[in-house]
Amino acid sequence: MKKSKSTEKKNKSNDVGLKGLPFLLGGLFIILWQLAVDILKIQPYILPGPVDVMKALYKERILLLSHTIVTLSEALIGFGIAVVLGVVLGILMGYYNIIRRMFYPLFVISQTIPLIVLTPLFAIWFGFGLLPKVLIIILGCFFPITVAFTQSLLKTDEDMDELLSVMGASRWKSFLLVRIPQALPGLFAGLRIAVTYSIMGAVISEWVGAQKGLGIYMTRAMTSFKTAVLFADVLIIVLLSMGLYKLVEIIERKITKNIIY
Fold it and tell me: Is 56 exposed, middle or buried (0-12, 13-18, 19+ CB in 10 A)?
């Protein structure tokens, strides 16, 4: 018993060490970055140091916050719609073979068109309001959600299917009771990928034309050679993506903790 407890403590300490490794490497990178800027005397408009970036972040905090709210709102709206569409179509393609054969190739083809190409077209067709931005986000998020969920639904537990069939369960009931719960890890894998795409899609759509948002603020900072502000903008985009990714992980643990796979 003592050996097992000591082994468990050792494993926990190893896990903590591994989790802290990315932060250690990140801190080392920031220190080397600042040293390189100071020693080589690089001009701030070419490459600002982390200190300059944090100063710009604090100085422009109110303006950056207003732009962040706009981008985050666009991302959440588009992501929410993509989740609903992805789950519904994933269920339909997982249950009906004919629907999967009809739509799956179209989804694959749609992903061969870069979003950066569609963004100006959507701006021409739908203007510079919320609609074209939400559409770009939906296109970016929809595919990973739908494909991940569909593929997970197709992975059958034959023993469980046979057991439910013997018990008189219909095909739809077996699908509902077995397939969907077992496919949740795959669905959340797609959601984790898609939620980071939502921020990226919002920023890309704002590059083409917008009144507010981190994307348009980034282009303004770039054209005025405010490189430190540009880096602060990028930092916020990274933090938003990481925060949403972590939020999806937390929701996944809450939902799947009582499900036996």
Answer: buried
Pick the closest to residue 48 from 34, 60, 28, 59 (CA basis). Answer: 34
Q: What value does the mean pLDDT take over residues 132-141?
A: 92
How far is Cα 113 from Cα 117, in angstroms, rounded to an integer? 7
Contact call for residues 91 and 260 (beta carbons, < 8 A): no
Higher-pLDDT residue of 3 and 148 is 148
Give the sign of the dihedral formed by CA 208, CA 211, CA 215, CA 220. Answer: positive
User: What DSSP line would sit under 76-127, residue for residue?
Assistant: HHHHHHHHHHHHHHHHHHHH-HHHHHHHHHHHHHHTTS-HHHHHHHHHHHH-
- Measured CA to CA, the distance from residue 82 to residue 187 in angstroms comes to 12
Quick one: pLDDT at residue 145?
A: 93
